[in-house]
Amino acid sequence: MSDVNDVTLILRSTRVATPDGVRPASVAVAGATVAAVLPYACGIPAGARLEDVGDDAVLPGLVDTHVHVNDPGRARWEGFWTATRAAAAGGVTTLLDMPLNSLPPTTTPAHLETKRAAARGRIHVDVGFWGGAVPDNVKELRPLHDAGVFGFKCFLSPSGVEEFPELDQERLGRSLAEITGFGGLLIVHAEDPHALESAPLRGGPAYADFLASRPRGAENAAVAHLVAQAERLDARVHVLHLSSSDALPLIAGARRAGVRITAESCPHFLTLTAEEVPDGATEFKCCPPIREAANQDALWQGLADGTIDCVVSDHSPCTTDLKTPDFATAWGGISSLQLGLPAIWTEARRRGRPLEDVVRWMSTAPAALAGLTRKGAIEAGRDADFAVLAPEETFTVDPVALHHRNQITAYAGRTLYGVVRSAWLRGAPILRDGAFAEPAGRLLERND
Ligand SMILES: [Zn+2]
Question: Which pTM value belongs to this model?
């Protein structure tokens, strides 16, 4: 605990999201760290600066554990500079990069070093890396773990890029046993390849045809297999981007039985519906897909009862030319890094959920998933990372105003609640009044 004499900044608001709820408070910051959460009307220590944000809410910086930065190799799709600016503008102060869509993929320690070299000096927020579990890299998993990745991602069905093949059940078991041997975490794109193969595949611009080609059953079967493997090996697993609400009872039941399984969903599954996707609008394409409104209601129930732990973006951009109007061939991925917070807050608000829930889903729980003990809450000893949000203010999404590289988004034209006024990283503003500071992000390793 820092001495009061070390306090450099008092960040004051009538609405600070503390672990005990949103309340008036003054956050005392000593250098890069939260020293204490003090009463609202506390005195200002000598040498400290007061930053009073009035009624704007002070949230812990968001932690987005599901981002495809694609850099190096597919840096025309995205990149560390642009992705981390979009993150900061969306109140995200920590992101974890997915191991695929960059070249090389993050499947060996050497590749991890290549990724870190691409990121160094170009990141506006803190960045960590997931490793990849692919068929031929079982012996690389422990070295990657030792090199500081936060866990390992695998696919159970084709990933969409040839350099990152999926694991069949036998290989899944082998990789999961290896990862469990050193206490690691496996995060899984859970769609069953056999269920996908037997689904009707009709190309073209109709969203209903695309939806039929990625049925809920594919997710449900994959989650069931994953639960069985995790139970057999007493492994720790995480379901990525859950879309099928039918899988919720499976996950909840497994957890009750002691299986170490967690799950995330994404802003697009929780705020957009299949019914409203226009024909040919492949900016809405992702896998698994955005489903029906009734499915979305059930996902919100899963959030409310804690079956879904986290809400993270799965920001997965590409160049405009790859978003052809044919849902079968267009690149799958939705760009939302900058918009996740307002999108979720808008819907949470409509459904009567408080800001505290949004903070838990988008900051505290993802930090816990990744073991980021210095992130995810405003309390003494944690990094002084903040998002300052005007919760009642609205804006209309204009793709041109977004900071990610290719200004395509499924949210274009939507009016959302929640304007991010500023973002702070380790006690210093990284974005305020629309202006970015010099990149001050750090490369994070597991256990940082
Ligand atoms: Zn993804």
Answer: 0.97
